[in-house]
Amino acid sequence: MNRTPIQSPKAPAAIGPYSQAIATDTLLFTSGTLAIDPKIGTIPEGTIEEHAHQVFRNLAAVAEAAGTNLSRAIKVTVYLTDMADFNQVNAVYSHYFQQPYPARSAVEVAALPLGADIEVEAVLAL
């Protein structure tokens, strides 16, 4: 099996010992993506909607670096620190994913790195 690390300068660098994504022969596995603005290297103050948009822009940049796009997503996992944000995130999500939607899980967690309120990872077809 081919295993190729993917790195996009249009997405934030990993904040730990991991790759932005790993491509196999047919699939792309992204790491969890935060709302870090790659231009400033931090999560700017903002609403959950603004953070969700940044997360999906970051995911799209990583997908593009691997030669795919969000329309080829198979499975998406959304981590939220407050499930009350679920509806707002769904509204943003629908700007980046269309029917037939990928399979998805949404999970509330106690905390995320860097004090983030949302983190998303995905598996995409290449």
UniProtKB/TrEMBL annotation:
Name the domain of life.
Bacteria
- Supply the Pfam families for this chain: Ribonuc_L-PSP (PF01042)
Please name the GO terms that the record assigns under molecular function. Answer: deaminase activity
The cellular component terms of Gene Ontology attached to this UniProt record, alphabetical and capped at eight, are: cytosol
Gene3D superfamilies documented for this protein: RutC-like
Q: Which family does it belong to?
A: Belongs to the RutC family.
Can you say what this protein is called?
Answer: Endoribonuclease L-PSP
Task: List the top taxonomic levels of the source.
Answer: Bacteria, Pseudomonadati, Thermodesulfobacteriota, Desulfobulbia, Desulfobulbales
